[in-house]
Amino acid sequence: MTDPPAEVALSVEAAPPDDDPRWQRLHARSALVVAGGAVGSGAALLARVFREALDDAGTWSAALHEPALRWATAGIVLLVVAVSAGGWVSVRRRGYALTPGALHVRSGLVTRTRTTVRVSKIQAVDVGLPLPARVVGLTRLDVRPGDGAATVTLAYLRPEEAEALRTRLLGPGTDERGQEVVVVPMSRARRAVRRSLGVWGAAVGVLGAAVLMVADIVTSAVRLPLVSGGVLLLGGALVHLGSAVFGVLERAAGFRLARDGELLRVAHGIANRSRRTLRRSRVQGLTISRWRPWNTPGWWSVQAVMASDQGSDDDDANGVLVPIATPEEAVRAATVAVPAVPGDLLAAFLAAPGRMPDGAGVIRPPVRARWRAPVGSRRHAVADAEHVLVAARGGIVRREVAVVVHGRTEALAISQGWLQRRLRLATLTLHQPGTASTQVPHLDVDDARRLLRTLAAREGRRRTDAT
């Protein structure tokens, strides 16, 4: 009999058996969080059923004697009990084991699944404290691998157990809080609330609901029952406004970026607190963006590009390092996350890339590119530094500066539309691991081809040196 391949034997050996003492269960109080969510959903559904029964019956006494209401209440209660019981069983069947080279997670009631994450592939670990878990003194741990695999979540653990597991996965740091890099003050978060498009949209909704309710009361032109219609509409609009305001504060207030050796520590949140730790060596690039509503104070958002952090609205999942930063803070955060970034070059790109003089490695679209992009072409520029490529793109609504680390590019491509071909323009695209890509649009076709050859030669030399 022949021996199995080394990689297969290694993977089987790395998975401990079910009776191995290294397997650890989630905390038993995790079931309370699941039950709390079921009770909250059941209470909301029950309130809606009672309101509809009251509208049909007219009085509380008549509504309470309706058989349909009793059956609906019993069904909702049974559903809540079933979901809570299922959550308890699911929590007790889920566990994890940490071996020297991998983290293993098992779960499932009917179909058992086992997930293995290699420690060397882990790029970030998030320790989250959502409000329901904080009530019972527990913490959620999210492990984000960098090989395209899905995030592995352990919900929930004791805080000290989660911190110990994070340390074993990423290695100990020199300081729990790290060296402070950028802190978003509360005053800036309040200014962000006043400039948020979501908050302004919710405020318009409140104004519209108030107008409808006043019209119903004064003229009866809008046929909405006062209690079940206008007041509920205004109440829902106010709740939406409060949620929009709280969402901005939750993402920005107290946001803190710190450096701890080769680790970056990001902390934020008011009700749902989160502490993220990521390896600087896993950062493939940076995206520094600025939206038109924030142009007056000159705020930028700094985001780290990582292999598994694309396609989510969550700030942690999207690698946000600083949500609201001044140009100086954006440069500071960028140079800490990617030390190879030339700070003076990045500051010039953030200030006005279209006004930078030609030469010194800076390439801009030619004047004829204005026929293709009248506004954006004036703000496009690209510079090939020794260790990174810096590219700026600008439009009417959004400006963006991208930093791509050399050696982290999987593919290079040049594309041309029909108008670009007539104008002898081309767009250079750099594809990075995962779904990330950086485009440098509307360059002169000769400049684009020359830059492509330079980048390809550099990537080839780096891969040769690595082997």
TrEMBL record:
<keyword id="KW-0812">Transmembrane</keyword>
<feature type="transmembrane region" description="Helical">
    <location>
        <begin position="31"/>
        <end position="51"/>
    </location>
</feature>
<feature type="transmembrane region" description="Helical">
    <location>
        <begin position="197"/>
        <end position="218"/>
    </location>
</feature>
<keyword id="KW-1133">Transmembrane helix</keyword>
<feature type="domain" description="YdbS-like PH">
    <location>
        <begin position="390"/>
        <end position="455"/>
    </location>
</feature>
<dbReference type="Pfam" id="PF03703">
    <property type="entry name" value="bPH_2"/>
</dbReference>
<dbReference type="InterPro" id="IPR005182">
    <property type="entry name" value="YdbS-like_PH"/>
</dbReference>
<keyword id="KW-0472">Membrane</keyword>
<feature type="transmembrane region" description="Helical">
    <location>
        <begin position="71"/>
        <end position="91"/>
    </location>
</feature>
<feature type="transmembrane region" description="Helical">
    <location>
        <begin position="224"/>
        <end position="249"/>
    </location>
</feature>
<protein>
    <submittedName>
        <fullName>Membrane-flanked domain protein</fullName>
    </submittedName>
</protein>
<feature type="domain" description="YdbS-like PH">
    <location>
        <begin position="92"/>
        <end position="168"/>
    </location>
</feature>
